[in-house]
Request: fold
Amino acid sequence: MTRGNIDRRQLLTGFAAAALAAPFAAHLDLFTPAFAQIVRDRWSSLADLSEEAQRLGLSVPRMGLAPSAAGEDFIELQTSIVDFMDSVAASAPDAPGATSADVDRLVERASDLLRSLLDEERVPRDIPEGPQAQPIQRPPLSEVADGYRQLFATCQIRADKRSTVQWYLTRITDPARRKNYEAVTERTCVPWYVVAIIHGMECGFDMNS
Reply:
């Protein structure tokens, strides 16, 4: 596959799949018992937020109400928090018992929850110190470009990750989010779908982050 015959859809799908593959590969050794407990604690916090939202007449996703049935999967929890924020915001106009301040407060608390989860999930970087430490040099693009092209050309989505990739693609192409990403493109010239992928990886698509 050469640069000349990749259309926009192929590029978007390939970027998203490759972006998703990196976190899965990088964090295989991260899910220690301590991190599993952190995930369980965050599920409980999401359940509390969901119950509060329901009392206000707001719509919430099913998974937010069932922490006991939820697993220790980071991706599952991350997507559930984002779905919660989207659902609360979307249902606000039809919930007369919820004020705009109530909705903003719930979304902000969910945003804080997601941010703390992402902070816990990031892999610590072992940076050498002392006079013997050598500065890490970024390789020239000419040395790694062919490797990136090969990875892109051979990238395949695993069957057990298709639903996760589809969730990410849905968020990347969401019209409201895309409008924000295109605004960034206007100022930076970075393609909107690259902005979207970076936002998904670093902030979980949270527009408050």
User: Anything to note?
Assistant: The radius of gyration is 20 Å.
